[in-house]
């Protein structure tokens, strides 16, 4: 065995993308096994590889880990991206859960009926601009440091950058009102491991397209 973590998921962002981001930011090489059909998922299920019969699943350190949050917590702890004490970890958890909520809202746009998508996306972008992003701008302004917690890169920064880029795909001017998030984006995008992940040809995935939805539905439903 190569010793690299092995990620089991479809070849799309979905729930695996923050895991890819965190590993990449930590400078950890990983392998991916893509599910192409429902049978691929069934195989993992019947082998007993999936605790709750669901992916993402990550083989790491002799474990077959499931549950996105548990996987992220493990990677963040292992690679020192989870704060220096319980209080820093509490802040990181709050910031990350806010980002997870916003990400869920964005993902849910795919499952809206065609005639409701535009209106739904507008309301999600309004929440990004007026509920979520102001929080991170305020945190950065409050302590005047480059990173969200402890003056040091943490999983919260990695997940914030991922989310900024995601929101910009739908609303390119989202950062116009947030000068500190603009410089946060510039600085974190330049961290060598992250910079590498942002280059074409990395394991970062492209946005899910309408045309991919039937294929994903066929596997997961
Ligand atoms: N709480 C679990 C986690 O966070 O890991 C949920 C996992 C989950 O919903 N997995 C789905 C699954 O395996 C695939 S992600 N379904 C098969 C089954 O039998 O339940 C689906 C998804 C996509 C994009 I693609 C956005 C959100 C979810």
UniProtKB/TrEMBL annotation:
The keyword Transferase belongs to this UniProt entry's keyword annotation: yes
GST N-terminal domain location: 3-83
Keywords from the named record: Transferase
GO MF annotations in UniProt: glutathione transferase activity
Gene Ontology biological process terms in this record: glutathione metabolic process; xenobiotic metabolic process
UniProt enzyme class: transferase
Domain GST C-terminal: 85-208
Tree of life domain: Eukaryota
EC number: 2.5.1.18
Family affiliation: Belongs to the GST superfamily. Alpha family.
Protein name (database record): glutathione transferase
Encoding gene per record: LOC116487563
């Amino acid at each position: 065995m190569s010793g690299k973590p092995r990620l089991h998921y479809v070849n799309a962002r979905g729930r695996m993308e923050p895991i890819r981001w965190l590993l990449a930011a930590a400078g950890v090489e990983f392998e991916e096994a893509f599910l192409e059909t429902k049978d691929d998922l069934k195989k993992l299920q019947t082998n007993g590889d999936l605790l709750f019969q669901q992916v993402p699943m990550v083989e790491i350190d002799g474990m077959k880990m499931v549950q996105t949050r548990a996987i992220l917590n493990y990677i963040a702890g292992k690679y020192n991206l989870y704060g220096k004490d319980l209080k820093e970890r509490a802040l990181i958890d709050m910031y990350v859960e806010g980002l997870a909520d916003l990400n869920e809202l964005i993902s849910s746009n795919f499952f809206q009926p065609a005639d409701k998508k535009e209106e739904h996306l507008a309301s999600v972008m309004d929440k990004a601009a007026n509920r979520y992003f102001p929080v991170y701008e305020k945190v950065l302004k409050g302590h005047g440091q480059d990173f969200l917690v402890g003056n040091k890169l943490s999983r919260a920064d990695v997940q914030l950058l991922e989310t900024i880029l995601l929101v910009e795909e739908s609303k390119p001017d989202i950062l116009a009102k947030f000068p500190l998030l603009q410089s946060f984006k510039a600085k974190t995008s330049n961290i060598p491991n992250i910079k590498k992940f942002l280059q074409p040809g990395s394991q970062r995935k492209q946005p899910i397209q309408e045309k991919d939805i039937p294929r994903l539905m066929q596997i997961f439903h």
